[in-house]
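Closing statement on the heme C sub-project.
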Amino acid sequence: MKRKPLLVLWLLVTVPAAAQDDERLTLSRDAAAQLGQELTATLLAALGTDGAVEAIRVCSIEASPIAARISEQAGAGVGRTALRLRNPDNAPDADARTVLTMFERDLAAGAPAPPQQFDTRADGSARFMSAIVTQPLCLTCHGSEIAPEVAAEIARHYPEDQATGFTAGDLRGAFLIEWPAPDE
Ligand code: HEC
């Protein structure tokens, strides 16, 4: 049972007590959940009716407008990022990269739930990230054995794709919620 104290420490460090009172933490979790649900629903509908090749086309068209609409509703930037990217528009900055690397380490160490991180800055802005874990369903388009017609469609839309070779349980990426500094 060597792991347990480490995990307790991790929870304390990533969401400090003061941050628990910040309503943006709750709103961030809601926005991340909404983006996840809407993307999954869109993906499943496209997979169910037209298969993986068409689902790639649908994701490439729909993912960014869905995130834009939720951002507008939330009053924060709501999106996804990852260390190995499919869409280069989702590239992490240096801080997000650090958090993603930490998430990857925590998942590999057996974190019991997808890790989350909430940080506030001196100017009043804040950022929330929560890990997106690879599920078996994701492997059709992010796994190691991708059907040739699926791989061809991915290459057509994303010639620089790096987001394959994942295994279920791996960190695939993170939701990223960016709160601007409050107006003066
Ligand atoms: C039908 C193929 C397909 C399946 C299945 C699929 N994805 Fe994706 N995924 C894509 C495409 C296409 C994009 C790029 C979307 C865009 O242009 O923003 C993407 C992008 C992403 C991103 C954004 C980061 C990046 O690399 O650009 C994450 C995170 C992600 N997928 C996670 C998942 C997870 C988790 C699952 C399983 C629940 C999953 N995907 C299943 C096709 C798929």
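Helices lie at 3-14, 17-20, 23-74, 94-108, 139-142, 148-157. With this model delivered, the sub-project is considered complete and its resources will be redirected to Aim 3.
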